[in-house]
Amino acid sequence: MKIGILTGGGDAPGLNIAVYILTKLLEGKHEVYAIMHGWKGVLDREVKRVASKDLLDFAFTSGTYIRTSRTNPFKDEARAEQFANSIKELNFDVIVAIGGDDTLSAAAEAQARGLVNAVGVPKTIDNDVWGTDYTIGFDTAVNEAVRVTESFKTTLMSHERIGVVEIMGR
Questions:
Q1: Is 26 domain-assigned?
Q2: Cα separations in angstroms, 97 against 146, 158, 170
Q3: Residue 147 covered by a domain
Q4: CB under 8 Å to 168, separation ≥6 — which residues?
Q5: What average pLDDT does the segment 41-59 reach?
Q6: What is the predicted pLDDT for the residue at 129?
Q7: Phi/psi at 2 (nearest 5 deg)?
Q8: Which residues are catalytic?
Q9: Are 121 and 15 in contact (CB under 8 A)?
Q10: DSSP 162
Q11: Which residues is 7 bridged to in the sheet?
Q12: What domain range includes position 57?
């Protein structure tokens, strides 16, 4: 099978290792392609064949080596038509979409329209993807927030101050 992997939306810790592990599990049995820049990479037909050895140097780093975008191919019908043409030309059997609500809803829509089989992997530091208990990025986000807050606490104590910490999330 010809399988494409993409990351969409904001980046989160764990994306590179997820892409690496997926590639490692699939290679040898299937053709594995990185879809660069998320769904935008499908629209632009920006894909490249990958092997786990190509991704190993980035596997334990933050961000996403295969890039990302906030492109949703179904925001309007003209783009959806372009997407359908691109999918047909790229001839993927399966696309693995790693992302949050927007990325995963686009994967579901692509499958519902019969364009491609899709597998969704939930990723968001907010841990708010419906139907999941845990998302890629959440644990690191929480632990980093705790680490920074603990460091800040000692500074506040040193100066006998009170501080307010605001953390992103929903």
A1: yes
A2: 29, 47, 22
A3: no
A4: 125
A5: 97
A6: 85
A7: -100, 115
A8: 126
A9: no
A10: -
A11: 98
A12: 2-137
pLDDT averaged over every residue in the chain:
94
3-state secondary structure of 120: strand
DSSP lists the bridge partners of residue 5 as: 34, 96
Give the residues across from 122 on adjacent strands.
99
CA distance 101 to 38: 14
| Count: domains in the chain | 1
Residue 93 lies in a domain: yes
Q: Give the tokens for residue 26.
A: 């699939």
CATH number at 67 reads 3.40.50.450
Enter the tokens of residue 51.
């092997």
Whole-model pTM over 0.85: yes
Beta strands in the chain (DSSP E): 2-7, 31-35, 47-49, 94-99, 117-122
Place of tokens 């037909």: 45
54 found inside a domain: yes
Closest CA to 38 of 89, 110, 88, 93: 110
For residue 130, give both structure tokens. Answer: 């419906």
